[in-house]
Amino acid sequence: MSDEKKTISRRDFVKGAATGLVAGAFASMGMYSYTPWAYARLPEKKRTPQDFGTCRSVRVTNISETSWFNNAHLIGDINEAGGLLVNQYTLNWAPMANGKGSAKGSYEEGISTIKDLLPHHLEKAWEIQKKLSLHPDNPGGFSCLLEVEALDGTVRKYLLDTGWSYEWMDACFKREGIDQMLRNREIEALFISHEHWDHFWGLPVTMKYDNRIPLYLHNGFYKEGLQYVKDSGYKGAPVILDKTITPIIPGMAVLKFDVPIINRVFGETSLAFNVKDKGLVLISGCNHQGILQFADLAYTSLKYDNDKFYGIYGGLHISPFEDWDPKYDDLVISLGKWGFERIGCNHCTGHLTAKKFIEAGYPVVRGTARFRSSSPDYLGNGDKITFG
Predict the structure, then answer these.
(1) 112: DSSP letter
(2) Strand spans (E) along 119-243
(3) CA 351: distance to chain centroid?
(4) What is the number of H-type helices and E-type strands within the chain?
(5) Which of 112, 269, 352, 368 falls between 20 and 30 A from 317, CA-CA?
(6) Distance (Å, rounded) from C-alpha 274 to C-alpha 97?
(7) Would you tell me the crossing angle of helices 329-336 and 291-301 to the nearest 10 degrees?
(8) Residue 139 CB neighbours (<10 A)
(9) Beta-carbon contacts of residue 327 (< 8 Å; ≥ 6 apart)
(10) Dihedral angle over CA of 344, 71, 228, 248, nearest 10
């Protein structure tokens, strides 16, 4: 994929997602993007690598990868509401619930019950919403801390995503000391990978500790999402990403993908790092664009040391609901072609996929299965990985 901007309308979102559903229930969640058929359809592109600098290392602390605790409840709620194309703000999940039941939610009604409490009275706000929402104890969240070491030894800190449950994420922030880092303005920016519940709806937890932190959003956010930024107590002006590649600091860049995602979400951003003498590191929230498009854009558009892919971290979106079909083995094989030396996976990668990676002999960095993470085969809550 080149850095040419591709415009996709909201109408195309429905069309694209519906097409994916023909191929399979979760095709529109990025599954198709991993297949050889999808890769074959990518046009041949001449490499035009952009120099975005170099850093010495990247350290990732997994604040929370457990976005929800019960697959059956999550899938059941979505199906009961009408399926994968239903607007997420109508699902009647906290903190957007109005107490009217499945598919009868409304952003305006839901947020009105707690708006005056955000962001400083999160416990009270969450207790109110738990009484109005479906499966109120299911939300968790995805979020990680990135510590980027510059060539001069300076370490700069960033957050990728801010989770879902106010209750869960506040506890996770305190467990990893993120609350104090935010209070001290040690964290330079928050990147929201996409508008989904489990990556974005916990925004008031970050705002509780730093409501002026620079905030980066994909330009596909809907009006509800942009309003939620304000209602969460944010006092800054979000940076709306509208370019395919946005350099942040030497050796760090945001990559933007315009892809339709389930529950009426559009677009995802991921991060790329050039680690000195090692090569390229790719970090994603969910990777709905698929590993092939993620890797292809990086390969054709970025300049990195040794011209080599070095590491990858995050949700890779292969078996997010721990379902497995033998044909998915092709997806595992497709990862091997890039030659990553360090693989840190979790969240929507699924622990079954992590097991497959290990069985295939891939250099997977394993975790400790603490703090309600379900498997030591991937990097769970509280685990860390360093690239470089």
Answers:
(1) H
(2) 143-149, 155-160, 187-191, 215-218, 239-241
(3) 17
(4) 13, 15
(5) 368
(6) 42
(7) 20
(8) 29
(9) none
(10) 10
CB atoms within 10 A of CB 193: 28
CB atoms within 10 A of CB 327: 9
- Distance, CA of 365 to CA of 106 (rounded, Å): 41
| Tokens linked to 37 | 């058929």
How far CA 9 is from CA of 15, 16, 146, 267, 361, in Å, comes to 10, 10, 33, 11, 41
| Radius of gyration (C-alpha) of the chain in whole angstroms | 19
For the chain, the residue count is: 388
Strands, DSSP E only, in 263-363?
265-275, 279-284, 302-303, 309-314, 342-345
- CA angle at residue 295 from 380 to 16, to 5 degrees? 90
In this predicted model, what pLDDT tens digit does every residue of 135-186 receive, in sequence order? Answer: 999 999 999 999 999 999 999 999 999 999 999 999 999 999 999 999 999 9
Arch. (CATH architecture) of 37-70+140-387: 4-Layer Sandwich (3.60)
Per-residue pLDDT tens over the stretch 6-59:
333 333 333 333 333 333 344 334 444 445 555 555 566 789 999 999 999 999
Place of tokens 């809550």: 381
Domain edges within the chain: 37-70+140-387
Three-state DSSP state, 149: strand
**What tokens does 273 get?**
């790092």
- Strands 239-241 and 215-218, sheet pairing: parallel
Give the predicted TM-score (pTM) of the model.
Answer: 0.89
- H or E element at residue 245: strand 245-249
